[in-house]
Amino acid sequence: MPLHLLQIAKKLAHDAGKLALEYQENGFKVESKGGVDIVTEADKACERLILKTIKDNFPDHAILTEESGSIGDPKSEYKWIVDPIDGTVNFAHGLPYYCVSIAIIHKGIPIIGVVEAPALGEVFWAKQGHGAFCGKRKLQVSKTSHIQKMLFSYGYPYDRKDPVRKMTHKIAYDMHSTCRGVRRLGSSALEGAYIAAGRLDAFFHYKLKPWDIAAAKIILEEAGGIMTDMNGALLSPKNGRVLASNGTLHHDLIKVIKDHGGDLIN
Ligand code: IPD
Ligand code: CA
Ligand code: CA
């Protein structure tokens, strides 16, 4: 792997994060993408900045981003997966819980993940086989082994008519009465990084997109956690069903989801 890829990914996430903070300071336009799904001027500007640097430095790399979709040769050995701002609703309301998420995939295998939360002053990153870090601090998932002691978070897609919302509420409702705490934080990438840091124990979400979780996945796995489909199988970009945990809790969580029929719903 070219050594400088990690440095460039980190610099890009940092520069885009700085730009997002400037928009937060100076104001920005908000547009609807349909329903309650929104995009801000900052999302677009951060994405433009990231895309330009990738294209200038690596013209033969493929790119997948939230706002521009697929770019470049799909057969390229390298693919960047970018969410310029994950947690746009938080960003638009001035909540600091949002991040820039950048992953690099090499021949189908995630090799680098960077999740920078500019308003919180933290950067989570990982390189395949070298562990996961927050700044310089090495990350390790929690040791929580009982659902009763778990701090759990979840999210759901913007489409209010989507049946997975009902399923999500059913499972989250159950969690409210069985575990220590349930949170709805609003940035899947950051939630994955928080499990890596041992701040959360687990997270689930239907219909996530690759850009929501690609960087968080490698950070979490390098910190000892697991990210799978709702039944423990490999993630599928087709349905985006994501269960992430410290690993120890995974088996029990799959059972809870299965008991609700949540492993079958798409
Ligand atoms: C969203 C966030 C949120 C999740 C949504 C995603 P965005 O990404 O990750 O936590 O619940 O499903 O779309 O729109 O802020 O990039
Ligand atoms: Ca996102
Ligand atoms: Ca986004």
Keywords summarizing the entry:
binds D-MYO-inositol-1-phosphate; eight-stranded mixed sheet; five-stranded mixed sheet; 266 residues; D-Maltodextrin-Binding Protein, domain 2; 2 domains; 7 helices; alpha+beta; Fructose-1,6-Bisphosphatase, Chain A, domain 1; 15 strands; binds calcium ion
Question: How would you summarize what this structure contains?
Answer:
The chain is 35% helix and 27% strand. It contains 7 helices and 15 strands.
Rg of Cα set: 17 Å
Query: What profile does the largest beta sheet have?
Result: 8 strands, mixed
Low-confidence spans: pLDDT under 50, at least 5 residues?
Answer: none
Average residue-wise pLDDT:
95
The CATH class designation of the largest domain is Alpha Beta
Described by the principal axes of the CA atoms, the overall outline is globular
Number of strands: 15
| Structure class | alpha+beta
The N- to C-terminal Cα distance equals 36 Å
How many individual domains?
2
Side by side, the strands of the main sheet go 4-3-5-6-7-8-9-10
CATH names the topology of the largest domain as Fructose-1,6-Bisphosphatase, Chain A, domain 1
Q: Which percent band covers the strand fraction?
A: 25-35%
CATH architecture assignment name of the largest domain: 2-Layer Sandwich
User: Helix and strand string, N-terminal first?
Assistant: HEEHEEEHEEEEEEHEHEHEEH
Give the helix level as a range of percent. 25-40%
Count the helices. How many? 7
Bound molecules: D-MYO-inositol-1-phosphate, calcium ion
- According to CATH, the homologous superfamily of the largest domain is Fructose-1,6-Bisphosphatase, subunit A, domain 1
